[in-house]
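Database export, one record per block. Field names are fixed; values are copied verbatim from the stored entry.
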Amino acid sequence: MRMKLLEATALVATLGISACSTSNGTPHADVPRCVPSCNGTCVSAGCLTTLAQRQNQPSSLTVTGTSVYWTNLAGCAADGSACSGTVAKVSLDGSGAMSLATGQSLPSAIVASDAGVYWVDDNASGTVKTCALAGCPIAPISLATGQDNPDSIAVDDHYVYWTNAGTGGSEGTGTVMKAPLGGGKATTLASGQNFPASIVVQGEFVYWANRGIGSSAGSGGTIVKCTLPDCDGSDGGDGGAAVTLLASNQNAASLAVEGESLYWTNAGPPSFSGTVMKCALPDCAPNGGKALTTLAAEQSLPYGIAVDDTYVYWVTEGGNVMRCKLGGCPIVDGKVPPLVTGQNVSAGIAVHDKSIYWTNFADPGSVMKLTPNE
């Protein structure tokens, strides 16, 4: 059924007819209200569009300007050769899909800015790479090599930041790194981290999450911040040492910052007891009158998070795309209602100009867009 829906959507887009209307533009009586000029499929939440189909394990994605960028994880041969990972882009309207880089070794996290697109190859000899938004003229540029399982990335106007999960299975071997956007020496901001898995930058601060996977029930998870540029005070006082904001009961999979608040998803365990959380910056300190807020509970492995000035968005293992107002989630029959259901193991998520974008990881992978009714 779902494949037929995707095929129908593709046919409608090819013919240039809105799925919200008949061929002469008269609205169907049996379709939900839809945003104007919907070139996808009307669902109760709005206009659902498939931007890219038949993708090979699409993972992280990011939106900037007029394009969506994502990584296709794929894989490599046992000896590390014949890697089939790709980095791709498509216009916000679904046109002009193209590969920016091919033959990548497990490309995972990705971020883009006006300066270019940046991603990490997540393996024991990991690499941080970049190329122009329009594409890589010859091959991607390596900003850092020999990284130990890099798996999250962020940028500001001058630097790219990433986390290295560390030596496989060994706690306390993770690091937080940065390097100039244009290339140069990589700097270690923090070491001895416990499986750092997500990173964001806002102004003079960098925040990251330590999953603490080796500890029972995720109790070893922490959320950490430091003051840039160096996080250790070695710059003569401008930087500050890393500070643990939250030291227990966190298993943060993804972080996001909006305004004066930090948002994150806790994956559990158990898998059905995930949460979406919020705290006030800069310190998340209850003793300063800034208590933690649980926006949503009983989520099934919530993963990925995005925030705009009105809503926080996330995806769940069960294939739901979720949305909640920044001040709190609506509750229907004791649960937060999903925005979109029936997705194929959703992975990354992003929001841009009120439209929501996500990847469906499982075969056949896809890149999706929803323009909500409101």
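Remark 1: The chain has a mean pLDDT of 83.
Remark 2: DSSP finds one helix and 28 strands in the chain.
End of record.
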